[in-house]
């Protein structure tokens, strides 16, 4: 079979069209998070059976993203669910453009990952809300979801 290559003019036109389609496909909500801390992706129903093992508990997590231009010290920031389970950050600096993953279970904190060190689940598979609270008590961001299904795989993109 012989494969033809596109002519330079046709290739340029296709590239321009693709670029314009991509530019209009950006979600409108992306602009709302410019220049600050916000929830990114949440895995509220980890894959596999909920058996309270460390592996299962750590398969449940939330990402916090710093979309700002400067690093942010998270000491005193809180992550809360609807029922009031609360994680309070100790001294942790998140760099500009970086993400930190807060895992529910036990483990050693490292760059990019911290652990709540719980022995039970936080995020409800039937629907919940994650709230990011500033040290002064004001709401920084929140993200809500409904029931875990095969279609959403127990995950939510909060952007």
Automatic annotation (TrEMBL):
InterPro entries: Lamin_tail_dom (IPR001322), Lamin_tail_dom_sf (IPR036415). Keywords: Signal. This is Lamin tail domain-containing protein. Residues 139-159 are annotated as: Disordered. It comes from Streptomyces anulatus. The keyword Signal applies. Residues 26-147 form the LTD domain. It holds the Pfam family LTD. Residues 1-25 form the signal peptide.
């Amino acid at each position: 079979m012989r494969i033809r290559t596109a002519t330079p003019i046709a290739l340029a036109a296709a590239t321009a069209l693709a670029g314009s389609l991509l530019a209009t496909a950006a979600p409108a909500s992306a602009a709302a998070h410019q220049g600050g801390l916000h929830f990114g992706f949440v895995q509220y129903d980890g894959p596999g059976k909920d058996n309270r093992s460390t592996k299962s508990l750590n398969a449940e997590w939330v990402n916090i993203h710093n979309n700002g231009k400067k690093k942010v010290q998270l000491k005193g920031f809180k992550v809360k669910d609807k029922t009031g389970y609360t994680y309070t950050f100790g001294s942790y600096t998140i760099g500009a453009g970086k993400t930190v993953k807060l895992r529910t279970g036990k483990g050693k904190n490292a760059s990019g990952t911290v652990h709540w060190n719980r022995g039970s689940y936080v995020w409800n598979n039937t629907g919940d809300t994650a709230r990011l609270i500033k040290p002064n008590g004001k709401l920084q961001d929140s993200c809500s979801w409904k029931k875990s299904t095969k279609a959403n795989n127990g995950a939510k993109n909060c952007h």
